[in-house]
Amino acid sequence: MITPQKALDREARAEYNITITVTDLGTPRLKTQLNITVLVSDVNDNAPAFSQSSYTLFVPENNSPALHIGSVSATDRDSGANAQVTYSLLPPRDPHLPLASLVSINADNGQLFALRSLDFEALRAFEFRVGAADRGSPALRSEALVRVAVLDDNDNPPFVLYPPQNGSAPCTELLPRAAEAGYLVSKVVAVDGDSGQNAWLSFQLLKATEPGLFSVWPHNGEVRTARPLGERDAARHRLVVLVRDSGEPALSASVTLHVLLVDGFSQPYLPPPEAAPAQAQADSLTVYLVVALAAVSSLFLFSVLLFVAVRLCRRDRAASGGRCSVPEGRFPGHLVDVSGAGTLSQSYQYEVCLTGGSGTSEFKFLKPVIPNFQSQGTGRNSEENPMF
What we know:
This is Cadherin domain-containing protein. By secondary structure, this protein is mostly beta strands. About 10% of the residues lie in helices and about 35% in strands.
């Protein structure tokens, strides 16, 4: 009977060659030798082992579906069915990761085919676990981590943040005429959704109303004056700036800047040409309102003065007891001469006599005080022509 002296390990030694010698007790002793080969049978005592504990795979952005992105490999030290390995995707630790729609694995050889086109801007990288199991009974399993990195493709043009291009009115930059060369007028701000070299931006002045007056710094988008301003420079300028990335092929976008030259920042902003009629109408309405207000104010002031004059006249009449008072003021000399001699060249004075003792303001009589014109030779005095 042959018994092992220790536990056998097929993975350490699968075969033993034993020589058995049989000797009798005679003289001389005779012996016989027998060679026996012992094969150690396999039991499923080894789990599959991956060649790496983790894998990093790279897939280009905008890849075609069913693209082979890499593979994993595991081996089993057992034999037969115990060494046959099958692969599978394990549930992701992130429940929001749609792993079943991203990748699949070949159960027989461990190859991984992206199921759909990947977008770097939406999903830059993701990771999951793969499992390897043998066909033993019971089956033994192991797992490995797989990380997939999406490589960026230059599929996004630059996006301009300032000046905004979707507004109803263009953004206008004010530039004083006293500005020297190198004066900062504005700055174009842009971003790119790509990464790395595909997101490196450069700026270029594409068009200008007056070439040579403005320049754009290529690395930061600053718009500056290239020379001092002169009186002959136009008041309005339109600049077109080109923004380009460094991808292959390069993508670009353009932006329009409007620059208005002013004498100083205290100068009011000039309206655009399309707003001029509305502004003129508003100015005319303002003038009408000012004139109307002035007329109303004048009428009110005249009414107040008339009221004060009447009150003073009544007070003076009460104090004088109805005596006649002769005002010193004169009426305007634009009355028509009844004698047919044309307009009067001299002013007239009137003597006003008021009745006393009564509370009314009735006139007693009113007669003109007419100077004696010697040159006319009429010889009539003013008392012959009483008015009342």
